[in-house]
Amino acid sequence: MYVSSNTTLTQVVHGYSRLADSFQQRRKWNEMLEDGLWEELCLCILSSNVPYELAKSAFLHLRDTKLLRPEWIIRSSNSARQIAHELSRRIYLPKKKDGSYRKYRFPNTRAQNIVNAAKTLYLKSSGLFGILKNSSSEREARDFLAKNIAGVGLKQASHFLRNVGYSSSLAIIDSHVVAFLREVEAVPQKRIKTITPEIYMRLERILQDLCESLDLNLSIFDMAIWHYMRGR
């Protein structure tokens, strides 16, 4: 694979070196309680097609108001409605240019995703810790989450596994990563309208090859891409 030498690649690799130490010091999944794993998954669900600042703000509000507790979600007959109601409130960051707060996008869909995920994990499965412990590889864990957990696709599953220190070779493919790959001429300039699972896997393989050629950890490199591309 040919990758041009340019400023973007140089800057991302420079950013990688700044992130590497802090990334290695993160907690690992086998040091976390089930509640911590569940909250990380909820944040990833809320981050789907939503700016990270908005997703994080919504997540913190739901967590602080005790609306993400799996036992309550499963026991309550209207948990999805209550979560959706909170997500519909205009109380979230980042503020708009006029200083007003935002509503969360897709309140009903994400509320139902969270409820369905809780039921799948804690009524039909052994919970996230059990899934991670019993998976034989990063890919197997991701495939299980993407196929069985509502609101979790390849991107969200990869994001979760990276955040809990389970994976080091799975990519989080989003618009920032695609733009980066275009700039370093690793993919054609033609716009990708929809990232299907097949396209996702193809782009991930390109990133894996690039990291192998540079002797870099893909999880850290992916994060360096995100920080650089969104910060310009």
How would you describe this structure to a colleague?
With 232 residues, the chain is mostly helical. The chain is 62% helix and 0% strand. Helix 2 packs across helix 9 (154-163). It has helices at residues 7-24, 34-46, 52-64, 70-75, 79-87, 107-123, 127-134, 138-148, 154-163, 175-183, 197-214, 218-230. The longest helix is centred in the first third of the chain and has 18 residues, at 7-24.
Secondary-structure-derived class = mainly alpha
H/E topology pattern? HHHHHHHHHHHH
Helix content: 55-70%
**Approximate shape:** globular
- Low-pLDDT runs: none
Mean pLDDT: 94
Q: Could you describe the largest sheet, including whether it forms a barrel?
A: none
Q: Approximately what portion of the residues adopt beta-strand conformation?
A: under 5%
Radius of gyration: 18 Å
| Tally of contiguous helical segments | 12
Number of strands: 0
End-to-end CA span: 26 Å
Brief summary of the model shown:
This protein is an all-alpha fold and 232 residues long.
What descriptive keywords fit this protein?
232 residues, mainly alpha
Helix-strand blueprint:
Blueprint: H1 7-24, H2 34-46, H3 52-64, H4 70-75, H5 79-87, H6 107-123, H7 127-134, H8 138-148, H9 154-163, H10 175-183, H11 197-214, H12 218-230
Helix pairs in contact: 1-12, 2-3, 2-6, 2-9, 5-6, 8-9, 10-12
